[in-house]
Amino acid sequence: MNNKIPLLATGLNGLVGSRLQLDLTNQYDFANLDINHPQMPTDITDVDQVMRAVSASTANSVVHLAAYTDVTGAWQQTGDKNGVCYKVNVLGTQNMVKACEATGKHLIHVSTAYVFDGEKDALYDETDQPNPIEWYGQTKAMAEEVVQGSSCDWTILRIDQPFRSDSFPKFDTLHRIIAGLRAGTLYPQFSDHYFGPTFINDFVKIIDLVARKKLTGLFNASSGEKWTDFDFSKTVAEILNIDAEVKAGSLEKYLQTSQRPYQKNTALSIEKLLPHLDFKLKTVKEAIAQTEE
């Protein structure tokens, strides 16, 4: 007898989604809304296909992970509403919202700290107004507006620079640094840029909690810590005993040579989320120590 809870999701083949499926396979019966699905291929930019797939599911919740996340590639599409970034991030979300409204399902939408301009020194919290400075962040901010304006139950979870304990074909923040350290090819790491690493192994537990408790609203869901690229890379080398030099770089100097805008700080406060958690988040150092290379 299958006692698993049906869960519908987009992006289950991606960095976060594949870990979600791996870690929670005993609790959930996953169905992936994917254009390459063998039985029911679903293009999330096609509203009819999305409505058909969502209507056919008995799941109470839909986890919307699929997104166009190549920030540089997105910048090259700036303002293009016919581009893949806008179509996936905005139209895809609009279609998910319409389907959840029509079927009464709870939409769990994963967003990003890139909705902010990066000018704040302190951690960003949920009361800070989005002010994206590049096209990826702009499309994700538009998607958030669509979700917040919907009539279905919704949850928005913002993350930043996600990484997981195991390696994935497309390197995450952590494994890219490990590879660079081991090969001796790690370029100088910014000492004047701040981010809030998100440990995916913990983040999938947050998604589970949101689905179980039907926790609704807007939440930051990273580690709640603030790191420079330089300190993060040095810590990775120390914890994993990699004998390699980490050189300091400067975002300010880099921006003089780059046309693409770059947020100086994307670290997120998770004070709003913490009281709802029924497990203890790992610190970034504890997460790094769990790395499977």
* Number of E-type strands: 12
Order of helices and strands: EHEHEHHEHEEHEEEHEEHEHH
Count of distinct structural domains: 1
CATH superfamily: NAD(P)-binding Rossmann-like Domain
Q: How much helix is in the residues? A: 25-40%
> What strand order characterises the main sheet?
2-1-3-4-5-10
Specify the CATH class.
Alpha Beta
Low-confidence stretches: none
What's the CATH architecture? 3-Layer(aba) Sandwich
Instruction: Enumerate how many helices there are, as a single number.
Output: 10
User: Overall 3D geometry?
Assistant: globular
Question: How far apart are the termini?
Answer: 37 Å
Would you kindly provide a written description of the structure presented here, covering whatever features stand out?
This protein is α/β, with parallel strands linked by helices and 293 residues long. The protein has one domain (5-289): NAD(P)-binding Rossmann-like Domain (Rossmann fold). It has 10 helices and 12 strands. The strands form 4 sheets. It has a 6-stranded parallel beta sheet, with helices on both faces. α1 links the parallel β1 (5-10) and β2 (28-33). α1 packs across α7 (200-213), α2 (47-55) runs parallel beside α4 and α4 runs parallel beside α5. The protein is globular. The chain starts with a strand and ends with a helix.
